[in-house]
From TrEMBL:
<keyword id="KW-0808">Transferase</keyword>
<feature type="compositionally biased region" description="Basic residues">
    <location>
        <begin position="680"/>
        <end position="689"/>
    </location>
</feature>
<keyword id="KW-0832">Ubl conjugation</keyword>
<dbReference type="Pfam" id="PF16575">
    <property type="entry name" value="CLP1_P"/>
</dbReference>
<dbReference type="GO" id="GO:0005730">
    <property type="term" value="C:nucleolus"/>
</dbReference>
<feature type="domain" description="NOL9 N-terminal">
    <location>
        <begin position="112"/>
        <end position="234"/>
    </location>
</feature>
<keyword id="KW-0539">Nucleus</keyword>
<keyword id="KW-0067">ATP-binding</keyword>
<keyword id="KW-0547">Nucleotide-binding</keyword>
<comment type="subunit">
    <text>Interacts with PELP1, WDR18 and SENP3. Interacts with LAS1L to form an ITS2 pre-rRNA endonuclease-kinase complex.</text>
</comment>
<dbReference type="Pfam" id="PF24419">
    <property type="entry name" value="Cupin_NOL9"/>
</dbReference>
<protein>
    <recommendedName>
        <fullName>Polynucleotide 5'-hydroxyl-kinase NOL9</fullName>
        <ecNumber>2.7.1.78</ecNumber>
    </recommendedName>
</protein>
<dbReference type="GO" id="GO:0003723">
    <property type="term" value="F:RNA binding"/>
</dbReference>
<dbReference type="GO" id="GO:0000448">
    <property type="term" value="P:cleavage in ITS2 between 5.8S rRNA and LSU-rRNA of tricistronic rRNA transcript (SSU-rRNA, 5.8S rRNA, LSU-rRNA)"/>
</dbReference>
<keyword id="KW-0694">RNA-binding</keyword>
<dbReference type="InterPro" id="IPR057570">
    <property type="entry name" value="NOL9_C"/>
</dbReference>
<dbReference type="InterPro" id="IPR027417">
    <property type="entry name" value="P-loop_NTPase"/>
</dbReference>
Length: 689
């Protein structure tokens, strides 16, 4: 019986294989396609047979080359009769036989890329890019020969980056003279064999790029957590292991398909060209550019690209962050003003920077307290010096009250240009023309009719703004803005169901990127967070405030322990109190100097143990700790290496019947929570020493 069943299973496989071989006797398949052929249905077999016949008619010699013919080369009209096989063309020699662009190993952890004009190299991973000859562009930033190398981060959480060879001006020279000049430039960087290979494949107006292995403490800290090693490089089976693959692997990158790279629409490129021209002319002063639109339309990508484009022509760009959930240069939950002088060549968690002014709002959204959100923006915006162009990033909440709040922001910040993104996948959003903004009531402001060519004033907002002395003499007149509409074709896979979880991952990565500043510089090994020495802060040296919830005074220390805290500076003097903790009745609008983790509380000595990358000089000014809804990523608690026994702050004995035990306080019991009761997952708890 077993033999008959095995024959039944084996029979169709062999008969199918024999029929396929009869149709094309000169084509040879390997063992793996032979296995796959037995699992195909009759329609798949017919399709495979038709493709094999087309390949045979096109003259494909599978015995010698061993590689299949491309689909585009074998596609012919169905009505056309099979034509005789044409004569085999001679194999091309020289540069045409190399992949575009060709890659060559240049020592351990180094690779050379020869980019013909207007060709690109799309990759994933991290590397240091040096332009040895010519000129290339990465994410809108131009790198020329002789300039310092740039660190590039191409992550799987965002669109892959591409190194593009761009046109550069060259005096009229012959190809021989250009080769002689390139050989002289490369002599100090490469050995003789590499120079000979480049000169052999040299073409006019090409660019030569050196890719080097890059290791940073932040990246090493990120990928050390389980489940985050895929962020930069994903291992997948490859069927073609050659010198190029090994060279790129030694660098730490991987070649990607061009379709996976970043692609901007014509309207986005046109808008950038106009904004760069306006910023460089400086006829009417520094432009203020406000970028708005719904979620997942490419606002953040546009901002990064625009910053890099502006840095090609000017020395610095100011950036006002008004998006609480997806911040660019700081941990989430902040409103900040930064002065950007270096290009932005990666996702937010790779370029956490110190702002010029920052306020910790404490929540990833402002739907429940929009008035405080407006007040914080006014406070931060007052530090803008109007010495360089300003880019304003806004939230993706543009429906109902969110749209009214955006109207208030436009009236408050008075941008010279409003870049409005729209997409066929996003919800409808009216065009924010100057007339529409004037005629529409905001959330806190009323509509005002603007007289043509005369402008209008907003006394209710301008009274609280602090300007420079020379600007106080003349009244601030808002003359409207220019609307630039950008049609986005941004490809994303987020849906309303998985958007929140995806955004949560990005927020956790931003927090981890900030904590990566605690690590020692490379090549020193990573140090776990529990192995670092925290600062000891007395109870009576700082005040406490829980931003996102009302907590009883007796439970304040439980809420602060093992929490993400904002290190702030308030004007009030808190040093007059003998004991602590010192509790604030209201949330202050104050400067935030950085962030840290309260990793423990010593009740006997009345000390907070704070772990933070903020310098000791700045910590002397900290006199307030703010705790918000931004939490420490759970991987920080779960992957504490080097500990023996019970891991601190983690338990499986979790009581879901306690008030507030679920994610939403007061939420009803769901099927998911019932499932967790039966199969409990590790939960976090806080314990005061």
């Amino acid at each position: 019986m077993a033999d008959s069943q095995s024959l039944l299973k084996r029979g169709p496989f062999r008969s199918t294989w024999l029929r396929a071989r009869k149709t094309r006797t000169q084509l040879v398949l390997s063992r793996r396609p032979r296995r796959r052929l037995g699992t195909l249905r009759w329609c798949g077999r017919r399709r495979l047979r038709r493709r094999l016949l087309q390949a045979q008619a096109a003259g494909a010699d599978w015995r010698e080359s061993g590689c299949p013919v491309s689909r585009a080369a074998t596609r012919r009209p169905k009505t056309a009769a099979p034509s005789p096989a044409p004569a085999a063309a001679p194999a091309p020699s020289g540069p045409a036989s190399l992949p575009i662009p060709p890659v060559r190993p240049a020592g351990p952890g180094r690779a050379l890329v020869l980019l013909p004009l207007e060709q690109g190299f799309t990759f994933s991973g991290i590397c240091r890019v040096t332009c040895l000859y010519g000129q290339v562009q990465v994410f809108g930033f131009t790198i020329s020969q002789g300039q310092p190398p740039q660190d590039v981060f191409s992550a799987y959480t965002h669109s892959r980056l591409t190194i593009n060879a761009v046109h550069y001006s060259m005096p009229e020279k012959s190809k021989k003279e250009m080769k002689r000049e390139a050989r002289a430039l490369l002599r100090s960087h490469l050995n003789r064999d590499d120079r000979c290979w480049l000169m052999k494949n040299f073409s006019p107006l090409c660019s030569i790029v050196m890719l080097e292995q890059l290791k940073t403490p932040t990246v090493n800290f990120l990928v050390s957590h389980p489940g985050l090693s895929y962020v930069f490089v994903q291992e997948s089976p490859t069927f073609q292991i050659n010198s190029e693959h090994l060279a790129l692997r030694s660098v730490g990158i991987r070649r990607e398909k061009k379709k996976n790279g970043l692609r901007l629409t014509e309207s986005a490129l046109s808008a950038m060209e106009e904004l760069v021209t306006v910023s460089c002319e400086e006829v009417d002063g520094c432009p203020v550019i406000l970028v708005c639109g719904s979620q997942d339309v490419g606002k953040s990508t546009f901002n990064r690209y625009l910053i890099n484009q502006l840095l090609n022509s000017i020395s610095c760009v100011d950036y006002l962050e008004c998006d609480l959930g997806q911040t660019e240069f700081t941990p989430p939950g902040c409103i900040s003003l930064l002065n950007i002088t270096e290009p932005v060549l990666g996702p937010p968690f790779t370029h956490q920077r110190t702002p010029q002014k920052m306020v910790y709002y404490g929540k990833p959204a402002c739907k429940n307290n929009c008035e405080n959100y407006i007040e914080i923006i006014k406070y931060v915006f007052s530090s803008y010096k109007r010495e360089s162009p300003l880019i304003i990033n806004t939230m993706g909440w543009v429906s109902d009250k969110g749209l009214l709040l955006l109207i208030d922001l436009i009236r408050l910040l008075s941008p010279s240009h409003v870049v409005q993104f729209s997409s066929g996948r996003s919800k409808y959003m009216p065009s924010l023309t100057p007339d529409h903004v004037d005629d529409m009531d905001g959330l806190y402001t009323k509509s005002k009719s603007r007289v043509r060519d005369r402008g209008f004033q907003l006394a209710e907002f301008t009274e609280s703004l602090e300007f420079a002395d020379e600007e106080k003499e003349s009244p601030v007149v808002f003359t409207g803005h220019k609307l630039i509409c950008v049609q986005s074709d941004f490809a994303f896979r987020k849906t309303p169901r998985n958007r929140e979880s995806h955004n949560k991952v990005l927020r956790d990565l931003a927090v981890l990127g900030y904590l990566g500043q605690l690590q020692p510089p490379v090549p020193k090994p990573l140090c776990p967070l529990h192995g670092l020495t925290p600062y000891q802060v007395p109870f009576n040296a700082v005040a406490l405030r829980i931003i996102h919830a009302d907590v009883a005074p007796t439970h304040i220390l439980y809420a602060v322990n093992a929490s993400w805290v904002g290190l702030c500076k308030i004007l009030d003097d808190v040093r007059g109190y003998a004991n602590g903790p010192i509790l604030l009745a209201q949330t202050p609008i104050c400067d935030c100097l950085g962030f840290g983790i309260c990793r423990g509380i010593d009740m006997e000595k009345r000390l907070y143990h704070i772990l933070t990358p903020v310098s000791p000089e700045e910590l002397r000014n900290v006199n307030c700790l703010l705790v918000g809804a931004i939490s420490i990523p759970q991987c920080v608690f779960k992957s504490q290496h080097g500990l023996e026994g019970t891991i601190p702050y983690i338990t499986t004995d979790y009581n879901f019947k306690l008030p507030g035990a679920s994610e939403k306080i007061g939420a009803r019991e769901t099927e998911e929570t019932r499932e967790e009761k039966v199969h409990p997952k590790p939960k976090l708890y806080r314990k005061i020493n």
